[in-house]
Amino acid sequence: MKSEQRDKPANGSQHARKLDALTHANPAHVNDIADALVIKNEGLFFLCNPDGTVPGGEGHGVGLYYHDTRFLSTYILRLEGQQPDALFASGSEGFMGHIELSNPMLNRDPQKTIDRNQMGITWQRVVNAHRLALEDVLTFKNYSMEPMEFNFSLEFDADFKDIFLIRGMASPQGMGRADAPRWSDDILCFGYKGADKIDRSLFVHFSKTPAKKKQTCVHFNIKLPPQEKKEFLVFLHLAETPAGQDTTQEMQTTGSLRQAQEYQKTSQQQWAGGFLDVRCSSPLIQSIINRAIADLRMLRTVLREKTFFAAGVPWFVTLFGRDSLITSMQVLPYQPDIARDTLRLVASYQGKKINKITDEQPGRILHELRVDELTNIHELPYHPFYGTIDATLLFLIVLGRYIHWTADMDLFDELRPNIEAALQWIDQYGDCNQNGYIAYNSPVHGDGLINQGWKDSGNAIVNADGSLAEPPIALVEVQGYAFMAWGVIADLFRRRNETARAEQLEEKAQDLRERFNRDYWLDDQHFYALALQGKDLRPAKVISSNPGQALWTGIVDPDRAKPTVQRLLASDMFSGWGVRTLSSNERRYNPESYHLGSVWPHDNGFIVAGMRRYGFDEEALQVTQGLYDAASHFHNYRVPELFGGFPRAGFNIPVRYPVADHPQAWAAGSILHLLESLLGLCPDALAASLRICRPILPNFVDYLELHGLRVGSANVDLRFERTQDGQVQVSTLHLDGKLDIKIESDSPSADPHGK
Question: Which residue spans adopt a coiled-coil conformation according to this UniProt entry (predicted)?
Answer without folding.
Answer: none
